[in-house]
């Protein structure tokens, strides 16, 4: 295991503004005129639920992006141009409890990994790369353990990972004491201090997207995992894995990343300097470059 640091080029953070992406293939069947980052969106009509997704289509290898608990499919506006320019098919969706996705009345919300599996079947996608940030990273690990044959690789960014070992849960309580930590505003918990200080407009945009991601149809209780995640279980993971976090991440500081890297065989790692819990947003150019370099090997 090796841990890489990327130094800054210059004294301040560089914010890369992404232009809208023009689709190079026809819209997918059933897509609406609604658009996020230049990509049309649609509801996938699945059993007991409607899952809102965005998909560039085309013949490129798919990369599926899983948003944070505070986000939805709309947060990836800084990734879409880089992913499509590299020739990949970009897909994101709103997990139940976020954004536009809807659970039918009286239906069990089930496991988020199962929704992803069914959505991939709906889109007729066999194997793909999976990128999850924060809570999306928990879903990514649960999916990788449940359906490893479907994945080319998995990227877990800025995530506490969902491990249920007692010692790890105690560590989490020390890092994020309740109720004090819970009372902090989302942008304080999820954007690093360097970014908030240097990028007022970027911070305001992140807050705008966070608020727009609130569930139109909230769940009575959160979705569960298919597996009770433990470090022992992670030792069985054989999907090529890339772990990254920010050195100022209040949820998943470098120590947490090292715990996971020590248990996942062959995991590649990256610690992004002066970055909090949202590397995809705070350092999009570096995030995109690192993720695309990793998936290109698999």
Q: How does this structure look, described?
A:
The chain has about 300 residues and is α/β, with parallel strands linked by helices. The chain has one domain: Rossmann fold (3-Layer(aba) Sandwich), CATH 3.40.50.1820. The protein contains 11 helices and 11 strands. It has helices at about 80-85, 110-120, 135-145, 165-175, 185-190, 195-200, 200-210, 230-235, 255-260, 280, 285-295, and strands spanning about 5, 35, 40-45, 50-55, 60-65, 90-95, 100-105, 130-135, 150-155, 240-245, 270. The chain is globular and about 40 Å long. The two termini are about 20 Å apart.
Characterize the overall form.
globular
Uncertain runs = 5-33
The string of secondary-structure elements, in order, is: EEEEEHEEHEHEHHHHHEHEHH
State mean pLDDT (0 to 100 scale). Answer: 90
Per the CATH scheme, the topology name is Rossmann fold
SSE-based structural type: alpha/beta
Beta-strand segment tally? 11
């Amino acid at each position: 295991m090796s841990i890489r640091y990327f130094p800054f080029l210059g004294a301040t953070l560089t914010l890369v503004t992404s232009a809208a992406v023009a689709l190079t293939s026809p819209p997918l069947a059933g897509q609406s005129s609604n658009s996020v980052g230049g990509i049309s969106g649609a509801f996938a009509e699945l059993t007991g639920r409607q899952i809102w997704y965005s998909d560039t289509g085309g013949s490129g290898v798919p990369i599926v992006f899983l948003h944070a608990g505070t986000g939805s499919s709309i947060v990836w506006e800084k990734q879409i141009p880089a992913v499509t320019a590299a020739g990949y098919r970009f897909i994101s969706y709103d997990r139940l409890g976020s954004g536009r996705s809807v659970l039918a009345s009286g239906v069990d919300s089930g496991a988020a990994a199962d929704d992803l599996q069914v959505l991939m079947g709906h889109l007729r996608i066999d194997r793909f790369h999976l990128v999850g940030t924060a809570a999306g990273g928990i879903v990514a690990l649960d999916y990788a353990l449940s359906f490893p044959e479907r994945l080319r690789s998995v990227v877990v960014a800025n995530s506490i990972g969902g491990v249920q070992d007692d010692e790890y849960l105690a560590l989490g309580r020390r890092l994020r004491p309740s109720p004090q930590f819970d009372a902090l505003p989302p942008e304080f918990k999820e954007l690093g201090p360097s970014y908030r200080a240097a990028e007022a407009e970027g911070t305001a945009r992140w807050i705008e997207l966070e608020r727009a991601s609130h569930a139109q149809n909230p769940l009575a209780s959160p979705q569960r995992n298919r597996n009770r995640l433990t470090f022992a279980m992670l030792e069985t993971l054989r999907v090529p894995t890339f772990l990254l976090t920010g050195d100022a991440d209040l949820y998943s500081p470098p120590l947490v990343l090292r715990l996971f890297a020590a248990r996942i065989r062959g995991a590649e790692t990256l610690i992004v300097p002066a970055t909090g819990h949202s590397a995809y947003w705070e350092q999009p150019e570096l995030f995109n470059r690192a993720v695309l370099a990793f998936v290109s090997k698999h």
